[in-house]
Each structure stands twice: as structure tokens, then as C-alpha cells.
Design a protein that fits this description.
The structure is a homodimer of 336-residue chains. Chain A has helices at residues 7-14, 18-25, 33-45, 52-59, 75-90, 104-113, 134-141, 165-178, 194-208, 224-236, 249-263, 295-311, and strands at residues 64-69, 94-99, 121-124, 146-149, 160-163, 184-188, 216-219, 243-246, 271-275, 289-292, 321-324, 327-329. Chain A has 336 residues and is of the alpha/beta class. The first copy, chain A, binds a DNA duplex (16 and 16 nucleotides) through residues 6-8, 16-20, 22-23, 26, 30-32, 35, 50-51, 53-60.
Chain lengths: 336, 336
DNA sequence: CTGTTAGCGCGTTCAA
DNA sequence: TTGAACGCGCTAACAG
């Protein structure tokens, strides 16, 4: 509403040309120390802030990145955003956030917009529905770098920052086997997400290494009600498992909730381990062992990669596949 | 990198002038139906996306809002972001996110940047350090509307969306009093945050209405270690309370953690209630009663207000003080 | 060292 | 109904 200060105004005030002002503000070598100081002093006094969009238009650089993810109602993504935003602020970049709500259609619509040069780069975690990658490849082809974090899209050749999902699935299963579990159920929110499938592979691998062949994979939908239904059926079946791997945070909560609905808590003879960043997992009853991802680090690492490729065009994202190990945190009932 | 499609390119391809293309794309009445269709068809075919920055520069409107908040590592803010982003996407706006990490200095730096027209409006929740409001008033004076949500700044005259904090502090205290508590401690993360102080007022009010005069306010810092120390001292004192109100989610977690460190859990004779949106509070041991804020609704309501003021300049934000009631969720030990 | 000029892509005049 | 021209604010190339 109020007209902001522009270079032109500064120029008129100092009897200089706009070009000179622009250079002076950028500390260009071709401007005398005197004028530089004069200009910078006035700019500061008048609280001059350059119009970012004018400069973007001219330089074809926006100093802005997009973060595209399913939802933030999850402690993993919350922490990841913290990491991303920190690095972005350090590098002078701005962060646009877009949520797909696990919808492929939204994801496509959002990416299409980026054809216009709104952002210089994209950090993304794909939706559970994402089963093809044309939209992603298209945006990369148009020259905008993409770095995946956590939920990657396997058939796209670009940088990824993940945890060792196969390995952690394996570790989770071993943890239960060590506790004497004979029938382990692996709960999944989607059979399309690479990250979940890797965890499942690890789980299967662990089973294969023992004589125990009674592992089962249960696909719960992403819908809360259906999810509860599947879990309920599982817990109430005669052949119920004695070990459960919840491959996502939501599922862990669901297991606890359903259990307390049907029998006032998780039966002592069922061990549960979850892929979760819940910091209060140790306070649950019984305490929940978790495979925890260093979310902040994943976010900041992904952002760092992206900025490297933005600074140096020779930096090749295709070669980057960073795996950050997840943590197995064993928590056992102290009472029991 | 690849040159994107521009109006000029479309113009050349169709033997029309850029001006005509621009109008045709906007469905202007002064363009014939025929050309409009031709233009729009080609635009779609070539996947034309207008350059947002050029249009911003010209129209002095960015279709972008900023969300400024302390951190997202908290379920309240996570859910609030979901609400904000939903409404923004519906209205065709983009969302920039900035974290202050509870630092006033960062908050000021961030707001200063907005002088430039980067955003059309701001949604914010102030940092715990924020004890003056010049930076906020300045940005409002420059014509950029601000809507506070959750953590407001009292002495700034603009729209606020909050929960009924005084009332909920009162409710929380009553809940404990009903359970027979005689000595209630109110834990606070800051004595500067209006929202926390309101909750405290409610707490004091409830105490005044009874004969019980043994309420105490403990200021924990925002630092995790110090916080734990204060709580530990509190729990181990001879005169320890029999009721605790945790005025923020972090504090609730801290109480549980500290308790389990010093005596394997919260003593049965201490009742705890927390201001928290933790969805797994019911799974804690003992279950945690909570005052829960409808975070998604708060976020979406704040965003809606902001967009209203952006669409209609006559809409006056100053008159808007929306209070969305929080929910007291009583959770009692079923076993005990 | 400083000024001039041109143009980034778009939208809005005003003419034709 | 269409086209030509200007300018949003900034930067870069080139002159002076």
C-alpha cells in the first residue's frame, strides 16, 4: 500500500543514477569508496529492501526453494522442515511449502507450477499414491534440480537422502526375534511406497535367516478407520501375532489405540516395534521400541545437497545417494 | 536452464501480439471467442505457465503469504500449518515458511525483509522472547496485513485467532481441584508469552474461588536441561505438589521424563494435566488429561481472515478477535 | 569511476 | 477486435 523505497528514489535523493546505486549496494569494485558509503548509509537509514521479484525477473534466479511433502502432521516431517529451514536461512534462501495430502493429482499440479521459475530447486518426499514419475522427470528436464528425502521415487535419477530402510527393517525384525517372537506381523500403510517396501524386504530377509516362516504383511490403508479395522482383526484373530512391526508412526499409534479399546492395553505377550520419531515413545505403556530417523539431519542434508548443486552447476546430483543410518532404540517394560 | 514458454513465444507462434495473448489468457471481453480458444489451446498444449515474478512486479501482488512461527517441532504448529496450507491452496496462494527458533532477533530480521513486497500478508505466532512490537507495527503500517494465531502480541491492533486461554487455564485448574488436589504447580516456559500468562490467570482465578491458596508458578526456561532441573527440584521437594499443570506440550513430556528418571514414573498421588495436542496422550502411563487446541481450525481460520482482508480492502482486521474454544479431555487411569 | 540504455515477462493503457 | 508502447524495479553491458 505504502510505496516502498526503490533504487530510483535513492538515486534521486543522492543525485546519482540508478545503475550506480545498484552497484554501490552490491559493493562493486567499480564504485568509489565514498559513494558506496553514502549510498549504503542512506539505504540503511531509509530501510531500503530490494524488491525480490524485480531482481528474480532480471537474474532468472529466485533464491527460493520448494518443499513438497505429504503432510506435516507427523513428527518426522516436522523435524525435517526444521532442518531444511535452518540451512535455507543460512544460505539466504526462502522456503515455499506445499502439501500433497498423499494425493498424486495434487503433487502433479504443484510440480507443474514450478515450470515458471518460481523456485530454483525442489526438495520432495513423494505421496503414497505416486506410482509414476513423469511429472518429476519433466521438471528436472526443465532444469530445476530435485532432491528426494525420505520417500524417494526410485526410477528418477537424482539425489536422494534416506535412512537405511532395508537395514532398519532387518534390525526391527531381529529385535523381535531376539525377544523370542515366533509370529511377526509387518504393518504397512501402502504397497507403493519404496521406503516402506524396503523396510519390508529387510523384515523378510531377517525371517529367511531363521527357521521362522510365519511372518505376515498386512496392508492397512492410509485411512484411519480402515487401518483400525485391519489392526483390530489382526489382534483378535486366533492366530494372532506375538510381534508387530509398525512401519510408520501412524500405525504405531493405531496399534496402541486399538489395543486399549479391545483389551485395555497391549497384551504382554505381544512385542511391538515401530518406525517412529515420537520422542515420548519411552513413556508409552508398554514402552515402545523404535527405529528412529534423524529427521533434522535428513532435512538439512537434503537441503545442503540442493544448495550445492545450485551454487556449482558442475555438482552432479545424480551421483548422490546419501544414506543416514537410523537408530534402533530398545525400550523394555521396566515393570512387567 | 531450459527457456520456458512465454507470452512472446505464444504470440509469435500464432501471429498475434503479446498484448492480445495476455488478454486472451485472462478471458478478456475484448478478445474474440475464436482467438481466445486458439490461444488457450496452444497454451495448454505447450504447458504454458506464466512467470509469477513478472506478474508480481507488474501487479504489485505476489499471491504469497508468509507464516512466521517459533518452530514446527510441536504438534500444534504442525497441525496449524496443515490448516493454513489447505486454505492457501484453495485460494491460489503460496506459503513461505519462516522459523524464528524463539529468537526475537530472527523475528525482526525476517519481518524486515517483507518490506519489499515479497508477501501480501503474514500469519504469525510470536517468539517467546518477543517483548516489544515495533517490528510488527512497522510492517502493518507499511500496508501488509498481519494476523496472529495462537501466540499473539497484545499491544498490536490486528486480528487474532486464539483459544480461550484464560478459560482453559481455569478449566485445567478446576479439573485438578475436582480430583482433590490441594497443592497445584503451574509450569510455564516463559513469563513473557501472553498466551501462557492468560492460562496462568485462569489458574489463579480458579484457586481464588476455593479456599486453597497453595498454588505456585514455576518458570522453567525454554532450555531443555534447565527445564528438567526445575521439574526435578519440584518433584523431589518435601513440599511437592499433588497437581501439575503443564502449560505447554514440551513441559508435559519433560514431567514424564523426569519422573521416570527419578522414580520410575509419575507418583500416583500426583495428577497432571497439560496443554497439548499430543494425540497419544491417552496412551501415556498414567494417561494424561489435556487441554487440546483445535490447531487445524485455528490455522485455517487465521488464513481465512487474512485472505478476506486481502480480497476486500474494506475488511477491517482490527475488529477481529476470534476465540476458538479448546477441549478439555479428561483421561484417567483405568487401572491404578 | 559514473551514466545511459536496454530488457527480464507481464499487464495495461491508448491507438488503430 | 487487435496492436503498439510503456513501465513495474532491478541488473548488466557498454559508453563516457
Amino acid at each position: 500500500m505504502n510505496n516502498p523505497i526503490t533504487i530510483k528514489i535513492l538515486a534521486k535523493a543522492l543525485n546519482l543514477s540508478p545503475g550506480t546505486i545498484s552497484k554501490a549496494l552490491k559493493d562493486s569494485y567499480e564504485i568509489s569508496k565514498e559513494t558506496k558509503e553514502k549510498v549504503q548509509a542512506l539505504a540503511k537509514a531509509l530501510n531500503y529492501v530490494p524488491n525480490p521479484y524485480a531482481s528474480s525477473l532480471r537474474k532468472k534466479i529466485s533464491n527460493t526453494i520448494a518443499v513438497v511433502l505429504p503432510e506435516v502432521a507427523d513428527s518426522f516431517f516436522s523435524q525435517a522442515i526444521n532442518g531444511i529451514e535452518s540451512i535455507a536461512q543460512d544460505n539466504g534462501y526462502h522456503v515455499l511449502i506445499y502439501l500433497t495430502h498423499e494425493s498424486l493429482a495434487r503433487e502433479e499440479t504443484i510440480l507443474e507450477q514450478f515450470q515458471s521459475g518460481r523456485v530454483d530447486g525442489i526438495l520432495m518426499s513423494v505421496s503414497a499414491e505416486t506410482n509414476h514419475s513423469e511429472h518429476i522427470e519433466k521438471i528436472i528436464a526443465s532444469g530445476i534440480p530435485v532432491v528426494f528425502f525420505d520417500r524417494i521415487c526410485e526410477n528418477v535419477e537424482t539425489a536422494c537422502v534416506t535412512t537405511d530402510d532395508l537395514e532398519s527393517g532387518y534390525k526391527a525384525a531381529c529385535h523381535l526375534l531376539e525377544q523370542g517372537c515366533k509370529k511377526i506381523a509387518f504393518l504397512s500403510i501402502s504397497d507403493k511406497l519404496a521406503i516402506i517396501n524396503m523396510r519390508m524386504e529387510g523384515f523378510k530377509k531377517a525371517l529367511k535367516e531363521t527357521d521362522i516362516k510365519t511372518g505376515a504383511v498386512k496392508i492397512c490403508s492410509n485411512n484411519e478407520a480402515e487401518c483400525a479395522k485391519t489392526i483390530k482383526k489382526l489382534l483378535m484373530s486366533k492366530n494372532r501375532p506375538d510381534g508387530i512391526i509398525a512401519s510408520a508412526e501412524k500405525l504405531a499409534a493405531a496399534v496402541y489405540t486399538v489395543s486399549s479399546e479391545i483389551n485395555l492395553g497391549i497384551p504382554a505377550d505381544i512385542k511391538v516395534i515401530a518406525f517412529s520419531n515420537l520422542q515420548i515413545a519411552s513413556l508409552l505403556n508398554p514402552p515402545l521400541s523404535t527405529i528412529t530417523q534423524p529427521a533434522f539431519e535428513i532435512g538439512s542434508t537434503a537441503a545442503t545437497l540442493l544448495f550445492k548443486s545450485l551454487e556449482k552447476s558442475k555438482f552432479n546430483l545424480k551421483d548422490q545417494r546419501i544414506v543416514i543410518p537410523s537408530l534402533l532404540i530398545k525400550r523394555a517394560s521396566t515393570v512387567n
